[in-house]
UniProtKB/TrEMBL annotation:
Family annotation (Pfam families): Amidase_3, AMIN
Catalytic reactions on record: Hydrolyzes the link between N-acetylmuramoyl residues and L-amino acid residues in certain cell-wall glycopeptides
Domain MurNAc-LAA: 251-405
Full protein name: N-acetylmuramoyl-L-alanine amidase
Assigned keywords, A-Z: Hydrolase
Domain of life: Bacteria
EC number: 3.5.1.28
Natural source organism: Mesorhizobium dulcispinae
Electron transport listed as a keyword: no
Lineage: Bacteria, Pseudomonadati, Pseudomonadota, Alphaproteobacteria, Hyphomicrobiales
Length: 418
């Protein structure tokens, strides 16, 4: 009995030692893998993260030691190229999946060096590109901030690049916000019309089956044709068919066209019986009234209704989205809203206090004056009948066209006077 017990103890101890040996062997392999880049002289890229949306993104790549890099821009398509020393990339494929403003991510060895290529969804600006030491001292990271821009701005960056070399030194914050609401010389006054909702996101629906996405597209098309007929403006639409567009994509389109004005078209429903008429909204962090806040909440949730998950910024990316509209842009938005209310009052019915404000995401472009026009309420039979009337749409679209003419003239006068 005693000998059997001793044998069992020896077998147990031997098994334990074998397990420990295996664990040490696996640990040695892991340590070898993590130090392989050091052993063969390669830089180790150990992680990659992207956060943001179609208007502004932050890209972070981590390394085991400090990278010596150069970066530059290329067009056709619009790309940011980051040249690195020869690098061993140990990145998760899920992390590098393109999203937001980034249409494609490529990286790999180039023989004498390695390269990271970020392809934009249209033109963009490199707001900042820094090499930073990790807070825990474990290595370094490059942090890249990019934002949607116009072709003109991208071309200017290319021209500047030909005179200088890419650098990890960022521009000051004032130089990173964009061109602002003052357009470039030779630029025609540009209007972007945004028909609300679309595709899987139908928006509001009346009891009779009228769907908001169809009403907004029909009206936006009417408005586009009237503005184009003036012959003085460049006019674009965020969508011209039944397609789903996230809210940030709508803002991106306006910014990349250097829009002087974004007009977002909607037609909501509301539980308040008898309420009818048009409303003009501008952006504000604090809503002008509870009804305006409720309206903004409903519109801002459209991405979630369409199956998109809206994630809050984490601590690494809290500064990547511009949350406050520049004061000058906000002033232009308020000015146009006031003019628009005046013009609409002569042709269509308005609700009480028709100029309101709330935190609509689609109005958050920092350098594009923006308004959201609620044409009426599909929950009201009379409003619904008007929204379906070609004659009423024509009158309302003409009123908005008149307001655009007054606003464009005022901006031209302000530039000439300045």
């Amino acid at each position: 009995m005693g000998l059997a017990g001793t044998a069992d103890k020896w077998r147990g101890a031997a098994g334990h030692l074998r397990l420990m040996a295996r664990a040490l062997f696996l640990l040695a392999i892991l340590l070898g893998l993590t130090s392989a880049s050091r052993a063969d002289g390669l830089l180790g890229a150990t992680g990659y993260k992207m956060a943001g949306d179609a208007t502004k993104m932050r890209i972070v790549m981590t390394f085991d030691h400090e990278p010596d890099l150069k970066w530059f821009l290329l067009r056709g398509p619009n790309r940011l190229v980051v040249d690195l020393p020869r690098t061993r990339f140990a990145l998760n494929a899920k992390d590098v999946k393109p999203r937001g403003l980034v249409r494609a991510v490529r990286y790999g060895d180039q023989g004498e060096g390695s390269r990271l290529i970020l392809t934009g969804k249209g033109p963009f600006a490199v707001d900042k590109l820094d090499v930073l030491k990790n807070d825990d001292g474990s290595g370094y990271r490059i942090a890249i901030d990019i934002s949607a821009a116009s072709e003109r701005e991208f071309d200017e960056a290319l021209a500047n690049q030909s005179l200088t070399t890419g650098s990890t030194v960022s521009t000051d914050k004032g130089g990173r916000v964009g061109t602002g609401p003052v357009s470039a010389p030779g630029h025609r006054f540009t209007v972007v019309i945004d028909p609300g909702h679309g595709g899987v996101d139908g928006g509001a629906e009346s009891t009779g089956g009228t769907v908001e996405k169809n009403v907004t597209l029909a009206f936006a098309t009417e408005l586009r044709d009237k503005l184009a007929a003036v012959g003085k403006y460049d006019v674009y639409m965020t969508r011209d068919n039944d397609v789903y567009l996230p809210l940030d994509e709508r803002v991106r389109i306006a910014r990349q066209h250097e829009a002087d004005l974004l007009i977002s078209i909607h037609a909501d429903t509301i539980a308040v019986k008898g309420l009818r008429g048009a409303t003009v909204y501008t952006f504000s962090d604090k809503a002008s009234d509870p009804e305006a806040q409720a309206q903004a909440d409903r519109e801002n949730l459209s991405d979630q209704f369409a199956g998109m998950k809206i994630e809050d910024d984490n601590k690494e990316v809290t500064d990547i989205l511009i949350d406050l509209i520049r004061r000058e842009t906000h002033g232009f938005s308020m000015s146009f809203a006031h003019t628009l209310v005046g013009q609409l009052s002569t042709s269509v019915g308005l609700i009480n206090n028709p100029q309101r404000s709330a935190s609509f995401k689609v109005l958050k472009a920092p350098d594009v004056p923006s308004v959201l026009v609620e044409l009426g309420y599909l929950s009201n039979n009379k409003d619904e009948a008007q929204l379906l009337s070609a004659d009423w749409r024509g009158k309302a679209a003409q009123s908005i066209t008149n307001a655009v003419a007054l606003f464009a003239a005022a901006k031209a006068g302000a530039r000439a006077g300045g």
